[in-house]
Amino acid sequence: MADENNELQDGAPDVPKKKGSSKKLLIIIIAAAVVLGAGGFVGFKLVAGKGGEENTAASEEKKNTSIVALDPFVLNLSDRGRYLKVTIQFEVSDETYTELVKEKTPQLRDTIITLISSKSINAISSPEGKFQLKDELLFRANQVMGLDKDVLINLYFTEFVMQ
């Protein structure tokens, strides 16, 4: 009866409390938080430091680049009755190559027409398909330029309409 009164007074049965295990758990949680916080801080500083250096180098590189725009293309896709109207602009690695790119425009246009007209609408309608198309076009365009280094460093679709 005394045990029942004791349980009723406390509101819960007597359970031995583990003070040592709760302290250990608290110490482990605090240590994990400190380690994760320090790791996050160091990671952020490394990424931020590299980004700053890359941005400076990229901004210096961008100063000498130029953009060469090609006339719009209206192309038949490999799917019957499907068309693509696309306007492409090339970013030239150095302004001195701008004239070379303009001289090679007929070869560039032929390469672009040949490649794009072999594609289906499913192949180029997704974002991944557009990125793959860009990579293929840039690779082939640099082959057309005929130099050992990449003259064209990027290309931009400024118009991309499929029907």
Number of helices: 6
Low-pLDDT ranges: none
CATH topological fold name of the largest domain: Tetrahydropterin Synthase, Chain A
The CATH architecture term of the largest domain is: 2-Layer Sandwich
What's the SSE pattern? HHEEEHHHHE
Q: Tell me the β content.
A: 15-25%
Decide which structural class fits the backbone.
alpha+beta
The CATH homology group name of the largest domain:
Band 7 domain
Please characterize this protein's 3D structure.
The chain is built from 6 helices and 4 strands. The protein is of the alpha+beta class and about 160 residues long. It has 2 domains: about 1-65; about 65-160, 2-Layer Sandwich (Tetrahydropterin Synthase, Chain A). Strands 1, 2, 3 and 4 form a 4-stranded antiparallel β-sheet that branches. The mean pLDDT is about 85.
